[in-house]
Amino acid sequence: MKIDYATEADYEYIVECDRHILKSLVLSKIHNNEIYIIRNQVNQNIGWMRYGYFWDNTPFMNMIWIDEGYRNSGIGKTVVLFWEDLMKLRGFKLVMTSTLANEEAQHFYRKLGYIDSGCLLLEGEPLEIILTKKI
């Protein structure tokens, strides 16, 4: 497995697979190195991770996706720890993410040391759990 910054060559893959971001924002996220592409041993894309900043000053992991056949193999953990290490090197002391209360991801993040730090409730949506981790 290899983790690379996304490039413009990854644009089509990202917009085809990531339904949670406006297409018009993808290139700026690529140029700001805020999207990582995860590749397998033969250099095929098998997932991505994208982040931004909460309040413009706290790294916030917006999305991590690992293709079905590669899940539960430690790749997600490796990517999250990779990102946390980079954020620590940049001087950040705290990172954030969120997940829906009806998703299994909350347990994944808690195993990695994230703690529940609040929630968001939008009309007609399941509860969004906000998680933080000191790094």
From TrEMBL:
Transmembrane segments: none annotated. Its EC number is 2.3.1.-. It comes from the Bacteria. Pfam families: Acetyltransf_1. One of its GO terms (molecular function) is acyltransferase activity. Keywords: Acyltransferase, Transferase. It is an enzyme of class 2 (transferase). InterPro entries: Acyl_CoA_acyltransferase (IPR016181), GNAT_dom (IPR000182). This is GNAT family N-acetyltransferase. The lineage of its organism: Bacteria, Bacillati, Bacillota, Bacilli, Bacillales.
